[in-house]
Amino acid sequence: MPRAAPGEGYERIAQVGEGTYGQVFKARAEKSGALVALKKIRMEAEKDGFPVTAMREIKLLQGLRHENVVRLWEMMVSKNSVYMVFEYMEHDLNGVLAHPSITFTPAHLKSLSAQLFSGLAYLHRRSVLHRDLKGSNILLSNAGVLKLADFGLARMYAKRRKGDYTNRVVTLWYKPLELLFGATQYGPEVDMWGAGCIFLELFTRRPAFQGNDEIHQVAVIYDVLGPLVPADEWPDAEKLPWYDLVRPAAASDGLAAQTAEERFKLAFEKSMPPAALAVAFALLRFDPARRASAAEALQMPYFTTERPRAQRPAGLLASVEGEWHEFESRRAARKARP
Ligand code: ADP
Ligand code: MG
């Protein structure tokens, strides 16, 4: 891999991210002038050399090439730090959704979700689980292109048999029931639940299921989708290790007679057209075996036949003042507070 000369390859412009294991900077390549994002790998905490999570992220990303997956150009060593050098993306989804004057049209929303599912379909075809889908890990360019980023929790998975993986993955609000119930054998369906949450969030502009802890998270999901009835929709759920542990106390609230689909419609029909509702509902199935894959979602009428046609939000994003990542929008929110 090509390596820039220490301290002279890139000129730092600004910080754009503060992550779990390092800062992210916007920078310009001194020779080509290209903009890049430098993700600094935090080494202080590591006694035994290079951090495994970073190693995993680098290895996975090096094998991935897709329009909707962020491109890792190279690694760079400068002074005592190691950086991942990425193509630069002006915004992330959290920054953009928090911005009051960025309003997507229905055609934009269709394009963004199609790009999200295309990126995921590619990852899953290549046997990669992302395992940390959320707005801050989804990047957007001024050209209206969406890319999946942050492969710090990603891993390869076995397609033919169920692997045994850690369930300590995915940010709480985007966690599917199987992970909340403690499953360690899971597959790409965990990403598709998260994709369903983000799909809703694109329309409503707020995270769909905002729990405070694992038990509350299950309760919040049941509030919207109705409580899980294992016998009807997912018998194996009861076999999962934490099923009894995280079950909300009482689940009857007078609405129990409604089907999950009716309940769901009631909650979201004001925010999205029926064809989009059908996509969300197919992704937010409790039983992972019944949940739509990314490729299946892309074949639904919302994407194939329904009007309007998808359109990239290019002009819209290019016309906003500033660049909006979660980092800047948090800083702006702090400033605005009295
Ligand atoms: P962490 O694992 O620390 O969360 P991320 O890869 O998610 O690291 O990066 C942190 C933040 O930095 C992201 O939420 C995003 O706002 C910003 N960022 C990451 N990669 C890029 C990039 N290629 N271009 C522009 N901003 C980026
Ligand atoms: Mg991140």
From TrEMBL:
Q: Name one GO biological process term.
A: positive regulation of transcription elongation by RNA polymerase II
Q: Which domain of life is it from?
A: Eukaryota
Q: What does the record give under GO molecular function?
A: ATP binding; cyclin binding; RNA polymerase II CTD heptapeptide repeat kinase activity
The residues the record assigns to binding ATP are K39
Please indicate if the UniProt record lists Isomerase as a keyword.
Answer: no
InterPro entries xrefs = CDK (IPR050108), Kinase-like_dom_sf (IPR011009), Prot_kinase_dom (IPR000719), Protein_kinase_ATP_BS (IPR017441), Ser/Thr_kinase_AS (IPR008271)
Tell me its family.
Belongs to the protein kinase superfamily. CMGC Ser/Thr protein kinase family. CDC2/CDKX subfamily.
Protein's name in the database: Pkinase-domain-containing protein
The source organism is Tilletiopsis washingtonensis
